[in-house]
Structures are given as C-alpha cells and as structure tokens.
Amino acid sequence: MTEDILFSNLYIGHSAEDAKKLAAETFEIKKPLEVAADKPLTTDDDEEKVSFKDDPVNFIRTRVIAFIEAAKVDPLVAFKSQPETGAALAGALFTLFGMFGALLSIIGGAQKPVVTKVGLFLTFFGS
Q1: Which of 22, 40, 96, 106 has a 20 to 30 A CA-CA distance from 77?
Q2: Considering just the CA atoms, what is the radius of gyration of the chain in Å?
Q3: Residues 47-68, mean pLDDT to the nearest whole number
Q4: pTM of the full predicted structure?
Q5: DSSP per residue, 36-94
C-alpha cells in the first residue's frame, strides 16, 4: 500500500441500480472536487513581475509575506520551498538579537571597580 491510495464509496450488494444510485450521490459529486483540488494552485504572478532591480523593497516584501504565509501552514515546507528567504529572515533575527545583546553589554557590562582595604596591623609589646 502507498499512502496516496484511498478507498471510499464502497458498495457491497447485488443490485446494480443501488450501486449506480450510490455512485450518483457520492462519487460523481466528489470526483470533480478532488480533481480540482489536485490541480496546482495558481499563484499571483507578482513575484515574477517584480524584479529586484526595478523595485527592491516590493520584491523583498512580497518574498517575506509569501514565506510567512507558507510558514503559518507548515514551517518545514516554507523553508524547503524558499530556503533563501528563510535564511535571510533567520540571519536578520540573529543580527537583531546580537545587536541587542551588544547594546546591553555596553550599557550594563561595565565592571564595578574593585576596592581593596589596606589592613593596618599593630602589634603591642607589653610588659
């Protein structure tokens, strides 16, 4: 068995009329919907129309929005279909956290001066 084989609308009986009636009620209604669902979705050709040279901001924006929408459904498929966009977003996120960490280390990372007390030792010689 493969995972793509599905069984539905099974009829067990002796009547050909009942089988045709069941097929008309179930199979003939579902088959066009299944065929339409198997066709690839048409995409807006915005990605092909917009080039980086012509409009870099719109090009990047459409790529990021498409990646985020795909990641909402399945993140692994989004990274597999658009690895360059995923890598760029991950790099931007790490850069942002790195800059934030550097800022915190500059502001709050100054060491306090170490104060050492010089001890005074007195010895008394008594009688």
Answers
A1: 96
A2: 35
A3: 84
A4: 0.44
A5: HHHSPPPPPTHHHH--TTT-HHHHHHHHHHHHHHHHHH-HHHHHHH-HHHHHHHHHHHH
The residue among 8 and 84 whose pLDDT is bigger is 84
C-alpha closest to that of 89 among 112, 102, 70 = 70
Tens of pLDDT, residue by residue over 9-33, are 778 888 889 888 988 888 888 888 8
Q: How far apart are the first and last CA of the chain?
A: 107
Give which of 61, 64, 96 is closest to 82, Cα–Cα: 64
In single-letter form, the type of residue at position 101 comes to: G
Q: Give backbone dihedrals phi and psi of 30, rounded to 5 degrees, phi first.
A: -80, -30
- Taking the C-alpha atoms of residue 118 and residue 37, their distance in angstroms, rounded to an integer, is 84
Check: CB of residue 62 under 8 Å from CB of residue 50: yes
